[in-house]
Amino acid sequence: MTLQWVVLGTTAFLALQRLPSAIRGENRGMFWAMATITLAVALSIPFFYLQVDSLLGGRNIANLLLRFSVFATFLILGVKVTSAFTAPRAQRLISGPVGFIVLGMVVAAVTVLFALSDVPESSTALRAYADQGTVAAYGDTARLYQMYVAACLAPALFLCALDSRRRRDIRISAGLMSLGMSSVVLHALLSLAAWNLPRGAWDRILPYSAVLVISIALAMMWNARRTEKKRPKSNLLAEAYGSR
């Protein structure tokens, strides 16, 4: 529980830090990425989940909102990060036809599985209904899209971290993000392997640690952009993070 609050505080702080720039029309995509991931983390905490779900009818629609928030986060991150680190192959896989087909199929499957599940009363993370096969399938299916995006990003970011031609802060942020994305893939694979079985501590530690590491990497990237503005001769990040 402490880790969840730490991650929520970090993502909320970073989202608020980006808000003034987003209002000015600068790099709004990264603000929305942090805003949606903050929403997803908040909805994983009972204090917020139960209140939000009660406003939505008390039938766990908030859990569906959490899943869609995660999908939006990974789509935005995939597009922005592949642009920032010049990873055209990963960019095609995420924002090209294949990527949107994967997203559409996962969204459709998650929606159908949720509709088939009997979840009449609010329960954070649907823990009260963990013994239902459709609920277990719903949770594991929802992880497929972020696993897909993370699997596309992790190798490209790792190669960027090894590229000695890039600035040190860029390489460190790429390495951290590659580590975070690898953790996302590992968590999804472990979840699929433990389908419909009791989860261990890894089920909480891996995803929240991944969010924390990715958030730190994003903060480093933003700082690198500010530094780049003071060095007009180098335009790598200026091009990748131009106002959008």
Description:
- This protein has 244 residues and is mostly helical.
- Helices cover 77% and strands 0% of the residues.
- It has helices spanning 2-23, 28-43, 46-55, 61-84, 88-95, 97-116, 133-162, 168-193, 202-229, 236-240.
- It is globular.
- The model is unreliable at 233-244 (pLDDT under 50).
In short:
The protein is mostly helical and 244 residues long. The protein has 10 helices and no strands.
Order of helices and strands: HHHHHHHHHH
Work out the radius of gyration.
Answer: 18 Å
Give the helix proportion (percent range). over 70%
Uncertain segments are 233-244
Strand content: under 5%
| Cα distance spanning the termini | 36 Å
Q: Which structural category do the helix and sheet elements fall into?
A: mainly alpha
Largest sheet at a glance? none
Tally of alpha and pi helices: 10
Which outline best applies?
A: globular
Average pLDDT metric:
88
The number of E-state strands comes to: 0
List keywords for this structure.
244 residues; mainly alpha; 10 helices
Draw up the topology in text.
Blueprint lengths: L1 H22 L4 H16 L2 H10 L5 H24 L3 H8 L1 H20 L16 H30 L5 H26 L8 H28 L6 H5 L4
